[in-house]
From TrEMBL:
The lineage of its organism: Bacteria, Bacillati, Actinomycetota, Actinomycetes, Kitasatosporales. Residues 1-186 form the AMP-dependent synthetase/ligase domain. This is Non-ribosomal peptide synthetase. The keyword Phosphoprotein applies. GO terms for cellular component: cytoplasm. One of its GO terms (molecular function) is phosphopantetheine binding. The keyword Phosphoprotein applies.
């Protein structure tokens, strides 16, 4: 996926919605082969936050990661829900920490278990939209986490098979437009043409990315993730 440097800089400039600001201690958890690592590194360093590096052994799910987050006084961490679910029940999680769920669907019971006393948010975004495209409000209770609203500059379209907008509550395919779109797939012109299509609702020449994800608008203006169109 060819992502311009300017897209990463623009994403890194939006640290505030994630709770990242000068002096914030952010754990670098993701593998460098995963796009979330670009968010962790660039957002931290370009906002004056503290990027905390740790060995793979210390970042292992379960007791090692729990000890690392506590002892390193981490303020913000981005984790897949399966990693958070491995946190030992007998070990408390620091209060006031911002926990960003990303990479897979987050079950309601995980929100119920860890949201009290902490800022827990759900993030969504394929690499083709530069790591993160939408973000939820802080979560609480045993709720199915929505994938939230688009970040500044990004546009969301929920369309049917004829590329027509669907009403609130009706499932459609998620298309992303606006700022942050990748240029396409390196050396794969046909796939680029299939996934990055003309945006009929944008300016002349505008494109949108066909995610393949099925979502629906909720009455409060947030997005509810349903599943994949190819499942």
């Amino acid at each position: 996926v060819v992502v311009p440097h300017a897209n990463v800089v623009a994403l890194a400039a939006q640290g505030e919605p994630f709770g990242v600001r000068e002096g914030t201690r952010v754990l670098q958890f993701a593998s460098f082969s995963f796009d979330a690592a670009a968010w962790e590194v660039c957002t931290s360093l370009l906002t004056g936050a503290v990027l905390v590096l740790a060995s793979e052994a210390d970042r292992a799910p379960g007791e090692p990661l729990a000890a690392l987050i506590t002892e390193a006084r981490i303020d913000v961490v981005c984790l897949p829900p399966t990693v958070l679910s491995a946190w030992p029940e007998e070990l408390p999680m620091p209060e006031g920490i911002t926990v960003i769920m990303a990479g897979e669907a987050c079950p309601p019971e995980l929100v119920e278990r860890w949201s009290a006393g902490r800022r827990m948010i759900n993030a969504y975004g394929p690499t083709e939209t530069t790591v993160c495209a939408t973000l939820s409000e802080p979560l609480a209770g045993a709720v199915k986490p929505p994938v939230g609203r688009p970040l500044a500059g990004k546009q969301v379209r929920v369309l049917d098979a004829s590329l027509r907008p669907v009403p609130v509550g009706v499932t459609g395919e998620l298309y992303m437009a606006g700022a942050g779109l990748a240029r396409g797939y390196l050396g794969r012109a046909r796939l680029t043409a299939e996934r990055f299509v003309a945006d009929p609702y944008g300016e002349p020449g505008a494109r949108m990315y066909r995610t393949g994800d099925l979502v629906r608008w909720l009455p409060d203006g947030t997005l509810d993730y349903i599943g994949r169109s190819d499942d």
